[in-house]
Specification:
The structure is a homodimer.
Chain A: H1 3-7, H2 11-32, H3 37-46, E1 51-52, H4 53-60, H5 64-76, E2 80-84, E3 92-96, H6 98-119, H7 124-144
Antiparallel strand pairs in A: 1-3, 2-3
Helix pairs in contact in A: 2-3, 2-6, 3-6
The first copy, chain A, binds a DNA duplex through α5.
Protein name (chains A, B): MarR family transcriptional regulator
Organism (chains A, B): Streptomonospora wellingtoniae
Chain lengths: ~150, ~150
DNA sequence: AGCGAACTGTTCGTACTGCGAATCAAAATA
DNA sequence: TATTTTGATTCGCAGTACGAACAGTTCGCT
């Protein structure tokens, strides 16, 4: 029963550690801007325009009750705002304020810079390999999740 | 100054999303065993034998005061125990109880299974590409961190 | 030996995170 | 229209994480 392990010796461990590195970057950058990691993640998701609560919950992997609180705190800091949806008077879409956009760009840029700085050491072949493998994994996990 | 962005279109995004997938797996598996993600991470770190608080804080990226609480809760559940160090009466080493070992193996196995199940869909070239890229990134980040 | 600096871990107060159950209003469906 | 479903909030609870202040221990230096 060690065959699977033999064929991927420590590969999973490496993935976990990589995730940890990314997480660390996110945490550090967020902190530098007086944000919590979750708040930073939220802002980055909102940077392309307003998003509904449903989408947000799915993308952040949060229960709706958790999301309400997160939005509350971000709204209280004047970084985002709830905009009621015209078609459905229950629903609301979350959009960034001016200050929110500024912070979102700053944190997104900070994270990108630091990760690109790491990725810069990869040679083009490794870059491509990483890209294609990650894309495949993501497609895979997205396909598996809706279960 | 958009050159760097042009040369890595979305590559960083892929990394972030990959981290998110790994995180999700960890959260799900932990929950299945009545653990929080952080508690699961802790158990996995302790599986190779007792570790001192200093090391733990560094590896989990936690402040010591945060670590105290985490250990408290895990100890209260009977999964780990503080063992005082013989050489330094201030220090203590955290070790797993029998039940802790059991849970640690279960969660570690669960995470590994699910990630390997994902990775199994990659063809060998992608696997190798991912491996080498991730190893490189980890080496890079470890070299950069001690700053 | 003795004194002070550095280190290890805890306590305390505070804010944030995240969940599930219960609730309410607004759709959607029968 | 009556019923069900859906979108979001509220509440209570446990866990997470930080920094400052603290106590005991060890270390370095004289």
């Amino acid at each position: 029963m060690a065959e699977a392990t033999r064929s991927e010796p420590g590969g999973v461990e490496a993935l976990v550690r990589l995730a940890h590195v990314v997480d660390r970057v996110f945490t550090d950058v967020a902190r530098r801007h007086e944000l919590t990691p979750q708040q930073a993640r939220l802002l980055c998701l909102l940077v392309d325009g307003p998003v509904g609560m449903g989408d947000l919950g799915r993308r952040l992997n949060l229960e709706k009750s958790s999301l309400t609180g997160l939005i509350d705190r971000v709204e209280r800091r004047g970084l985002a705002a709830r905009n009621r949806d015209g078609h459905d008077r229950r629903a609301c879409r979350i959009g960034l304020t001016e200050e929110g956009v500024r912070l979102a760009h700053e944190t997104h840029g900070g994270v990108t810079d630091r990760l690109e700085h790491l990725a810069a050491e990869l040679d083009p072949a490794q870059r491509d390999g990483l890209r294609s493998a990650v894309d495949r994994l993501l497609a895979e996990s997205e396909a598996a999740e809706p279960s």
